[in-house]
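Lecture 7 notes: from sequence to structure.

We start with a single chain of 129 residues. Read the sequence below before looking at the structure.
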Amino acid sequence: MAFDDVNVAAERPTMPALMKGWRRRCPKCGNGPLLSGYLKVRDTCPVCREELYHHRADDGPAYLTILIVAHLMAPVMHVAFVRFRPEPLILFTILAVGCVGLSLYLLPRLKGMIVGFQWARYMHGFSRV
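Now the structure, written as tokens:
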């Protein structure tokens, strides 16, 4: 068996790891919870014992959340203002609740996806061994 054959056999599929991360589950087994709190990643999976403390999600989930929320809410704000002309305080209240709610929903899911991506690509200490 050649060296390249070993690396090909050890590849982890990225899309299933991303989907498990979206569901906030362990990227390896998909059963154990990935997070121990709202954003705290567990050190190990309680089901399969995969080490998860290697992740380096840092500010990535926050940047992606801001990017997605801004691209979704800006057109909503424009259409609502042009079409309905609500009072500014009403428009602000509705958009503020929408932005906060969407941000709180997306942030842990995007963090799970980033951890799953790092696990699938053997990044930051998620070794092949």
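The helical segments are 3-9, 14-22, 60-84, 88-120. Keep this in mind for problem set 3.
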